[in-house]
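Reminder: ligand-aware prediction takes two inputs, not one.
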Amino acid sequence: MNIRHFLRSIADARALLSFYSIARFTALGSPSLFDWAGIHFCLSQIKGFASHKNGRPEFWIFRIKLLLDMLPTLTTLQQRKPYLYFPDWLCPQCNSAPEDLNHLWTCPYILLELNPCLTHRSEVVKFRDLCLSSFLSLKLLDSTFQTAFCALDCWDYETPSPSCLWLTRGLLSAHLTTFLKQNFPLSVIYKIISPLFNDFQVKLYGDIWLCRNVFFHAWEESQGISAASKLRGLSSKPPIAISSQFHNSSLATVSQDSWISWISSSIIRGGSWISHLDFLRRLTVQPLRISFW
Ligand SMILES: [Zn+2]
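Here is what comes back for the chain with zinc ion:
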């Protein structure tokens, strides 16, 4: 046995344990709802992790932020910079609900070709059907498999179900792998799902998040929120009062740029990606500590 690999695997297991113990995940429910080994596998397959020096890191930053609910949605910005983003502002695209993470996929924006809700639905269907056809190509299974697979809660894009929204975020449902394990070994399940999951999130990134960003920046300008006013905000004191809503959601007081530059430099140095998670965990508990002061 290679002792270095052995110690590395222990360190990775410990980092994975602290990762899924992060408050933002435990707030969703029992850790047993999610397939953490599968989530780990899918994340470690992101090309950006391996080719950061040559590749574009934007997509993997999107995936990590999405997973950790750190994307700069309006709700997050309202918490981070309440002096720029007023708390009663709703989603600029539909003006019907606060723009939080889940709203990105359920926003009923009026223009059909740019409607995030319709795009999300069609991408979930595509992801589900590609998974199904890939598994069926490996093994001859009767129609009950197909029916039961499509009826899994994580594919319920109509409601959408919490597990469908969690899947969108990158949290692989335990019930999905438990179901597939009846017919396939875990290694095959992950190998099939991982690239399709990546393609699914690439579409979310390109067709929903980037489009939303273009619209959002135009909206910010119309509200008089310029790059300069955001920079000025950095020198302001953060608000002393922290609402109870704030505790549950995101890293409002932590500069996102600081952890991105940290994680990028660590990857360039060749560190194991999972060792970064301990850093993320420390960031995550920080707002909770503040809340007790
Ligand atoms: Zn909306």
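The longest helix spans residues 186-222. Residues 3-291 form one domain. We will return to this case in the review session.
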